[in-house]
């Protein structure tokens, strides 16, 4: 049983699964859960892409 | 300036009207069960769909971590990072116990994705801690 996703796929999986848990545990109503989960997912992805570009700039 | 407004204690507003009114021991049972089986605490406090989503998310994250050949930390009194990793892994409850019993999880990280797998397993455990505490909060009426 081996699973070897690309780095970006691993990030997306991590962000999606963690966002579901954050959404459910940090908000009380269904609508607020969905909104907060999507917000967390977007923040995860934006932070990763931003950090990626930052590392690219540092490397140059 | 003194105020004459009397606010109820946090969570007290729900205790009388919430259909899920539980004793403290019941809430602690939800905490323990939620730790052992991700999402089970929410099922116990009558939030089955939340429990189902939590179960799927946390279990998927842990299983993917193991499938990525991530390391499962074992109990030891050595380095502080190993101890913290073990505490994180232990948060997954029965998932960790079963994975250790079946000898899943590599002792040392050898490929890049295995390092991600290690983090997936640790974070799955930490997220399960949050989920179990959330079930407890619902049980005592602090959260709806």
TrEMBL record, chain A:
This is Transmembrane protein. It comes from the Bacteria. The chain crosses the membrane at residues 33-58. It comes from Acidisarcina polymorpha. Keywords: Membrane, Transmembrane, Transmembrane helix.
